[in-house]
Amino acid sequence: MSSVRPRVAFQGEPGAFSEEAAIKLLGNEILLVPRATFADLFKSIEAEVADYAIVPIENSLAGTIQPCRDLLHRSSLVITSEVIIPIAQQLVGISGATFAEIRSVESHPVALAQCEKFFQSQPHLERIEADDTAGSVARVIKSGDRRRAAIAGKRAAALYGGQILMENIQDDNENYTRFLLLSSTEFIRKAARMALNSLQAENREGGSSRLFSVAANIQSSDKKKEKDHDC
Q1: Model pTM?
Q2: Where are the domains of the chain?
Q3: Catalytic residue of the set 17, 80, 118, 177
Q4: pLDDT, tens digit, for every residue of 81-99?
Q5: Domain 91-166 homologous superfamily, CATH
Q6: Angle at the Cα of 21 (from 18 to 23), degrees rounded to 5?
Q7: Record: fold of 7-86+176-203+215-230
Q8: Domains 7-86+176-203+215-230 and 91-166 share a fold
Q9: How crowded is residue 80: how many other Cβ atoms within 10 Å of its Cβ?
Q10: pLDDT tens readout for residues 149-205
Q11: 10 catalytic residue (yes or no)
């Protein structure tokens, strides 16, 4: 196999749940490429800034992530794999802040939707939609405003030095998001050729199964994509 680390694009800032999904699926030896929007995410492979894109497609509480579904329908990218991760949402403020001081809460619309019961119990809090969860934490911390909070995971809170004011505020602890790993058919074929060259160099028994596994993605990914389009 090539020693080149695969580049994986994800939507949001470092610390996002998509970053966590990419690491769970592919391991720590990847190069993570943050992208500002879902539209940018789907363009990342064509723009040659990434080899793969990790895309959230549905959540057990909020349902289909429609912007990604729509982009997938219009995309020529193929599904190579998928992963499901648990989502635990935290209310994050600046260091030293208290929950009683909070007046506004910002996050990605899907994250806000996963915490409907929390907002119903705190009607005085203003909801503010943002591009991503981790980026919301970064902005709140940078502002230094004790009245502002964000909804995100523990990974983002730790990364940006935020203080968790309330834990696990999602509507249900059984909260999961399904992510698709996308790539181009051209890249998958290139990976298959690289695997073949590696296997020929290694010249060992049983190695061909690795090549067949990579090549099989070309046939199966289109079927997966068709299935997702029908959902």
Answers
A1: 0.78
A2: 7-86+176-203+215-230, 91-166
A3: 177
A4: 999 999 999 999 999 999 9
A5: Periplasmic binding protein-like II (3.40.190.10)
A6: 115
A7: D-Maltodextrin-Binding Protein; domain 2 (3.40.190)
A8: yes
A9: 21
A10: 999 999 999 999 999 999 999 999 999 999 999 999 887 776 666 656 655 565 555
A11: no
What's the pLDDT score for residue 223? 55
Annotated catalytic, 179?
A: yes
Residue 211 has pLDDT above 50, yes or no: no
User: How many residues make up the chain in this entry?
Assistant: 231
Q: Which of 42, 119, 179, 212 is catalytic?
A: 179
**Do 26 and 6 meet the contact criterion of CB atoms below 8 Å apart?**
yes
DSSP state of 101: G
> In whole angstroms, what is the distance from residue 84 CA to residue 230 CA?
20
